[in-house]
């Protein structure tokens, strides 16, 4: 039975897909083409470890075998599940400035018809909304220190690689070299990140939300989403008072994270 020896565990909207796509081009690394959601999705988890192993059936001698599912970092029950089956796994984290990550997470949900509140209402009512939908935790999902600490109950820190999204964007080759060294692969390929395309926002947030409610994540919903979308450069700007509030909210968490992972996070201060 072939199981992965590394996982990209998070964070969502922090460049994990870009990293995965580049790693898939490396001869010594095997990664499935999509997120597997095994350890975080109860329905998939109930299929058993044999189902999970089948996702790696095409491995053909690669040294590093892994997968990317950023939800792994967020859900509390995941670290124990991972440790149960692959206790020797290496874990790759990518952290993005938490205010920007939370805002991107929010718009991702708006685009996909999952969110209809404005951003301010969503974050100020977050504690209440979390009781009904744990994935509406836009702030909570950016509190990286809590997530790392959960994994440290099962995995030693030397089995973890911590990457900053901002460094990845500025100097991807340096990040690739860190990843290759961490995974023990010797590839010398020069890799580049794929540039992001235009942002596609819904013309009507209400239509996106209602159609998702009525039709779920079906072909019909995706057709409506396509018709309802408009292409723009980036998201609408965040309100300055909201940004200042969130910067203050995350300040202590970021300081704790910097100390724990022994990494300079000052690049986030002026974003």
Question: Would you kindly provide a written description of the structure presented here, covering whatever features stand out?
Answer:
By secondary structure, the chain is α/β, with parallel strands linked by helices. The chain has a domain at 6-106 and 139-195 and 256-268: P-loop containing nucleotide triphosphate hydrolases (Rossmann fold). It has 13 helices and 7 strands. It has a 5-stranded parallel sheet with strand order 2-3-1-4-5. Helix 11 packs antiparallel against helix 12 (219-228). The chain starts with 5 loop residues before the first strand and ends in a 10-residue tail after the last helix. The relative contact order is 0.16.
